What we know:
Elements: E1 2-6, H1 9-26, E2 31-34, H2 41-54, E3 62-65, E4 67-69, H3 80-87, E5 99-100, H4 109-122, E6 128-131, E7 153-156, H5 159-165, E8 178-181, H6 184-188, E9 192-197, H7 203-211, E10 230-235, H8 236-240
Parallel strand pairs: 1-10, 2-3, 2-6, 3-5, 6-9, 9-10
Antiparallel strand pairs: 4-8, 7-8
Helix pairs in contact: 1-2
Bound molecules: 6-O-phosphono-beta-D-fructofuranose.
Amino acid sequence: MKILVEKDYDMMSKAAGQIIKEEIAKKPNIVLGLATGSTPEGMYKELIRMHKEEELDFSKVVTFNLDEYVGLDGDHPNSYRYFMNDIFFNHININIKNTHVPNGKAEDLGQYCKTYDEIIQEAGGVDIQILGIGENGHVAFNEPDEALSVGTSIVKLTESTIQANSRFFDSIEDVPKTAITMGIGSILKAKKIILLANGKNKAKAIKELLKGDKVSTQMPASFLLLHPDVTIIVDEDAYKG
Length: 241
Ligand SMILES: O=P(O)(O)OC[C@H]1O[C@](O)(CO)[C@@H](O)[C@@H]1O
């Protein structure tokens, strides 16, 4: 596990953008695993800037997002599909057909989860997976629990995540209680993983992760310790607390 400590959020976002740019230069049809949440927003801004000012080309890039709320369709302003279109895809030259966000309105959700993992593998698997981390150590919507799903599955959100994400909704009652998420096993299949964290509220989770001695389902991010190519990019606040 490699750690890069950047001065602030801006530098963290630029460092992540730079890595992705270099990887797209090596492989224009790269498969990117993408995350939502406020953490990667700066990285998306940086990639948009690189597209506009440095001709970074997304025309062959394929993307898979980690998660989506159950019950929200892609037109809903709080859905992750809407978020991704709004803050990233609509501003670059990506073919929208090459972007995948789990369908929170799929009729048969169980079957849909299996299919999602299959289409990722059919596309060649994720080359670089971008991750954020929850204050409680969750990755995507894999919440601390007695057991964690290996593949994409439907999960119940914890009170702390519902609380944290209610800032995006009109009221806490509007936050969906379940979500589709790629599983820990799906995430660990990526060839390379970049985890981003900023702000003092992430320091406890980052400290726990950097101890590096144990994996625990109570700390879903700890499973990243089993992966051979993980880079954690943090700002000083997330590093020092
Ligand atoms: O980046 P944020 O907004 O702090 O969220 C952290 C994590 O929580 C989630 O948004 C899920 O609640 C993840 O997708 C994200 O990685």
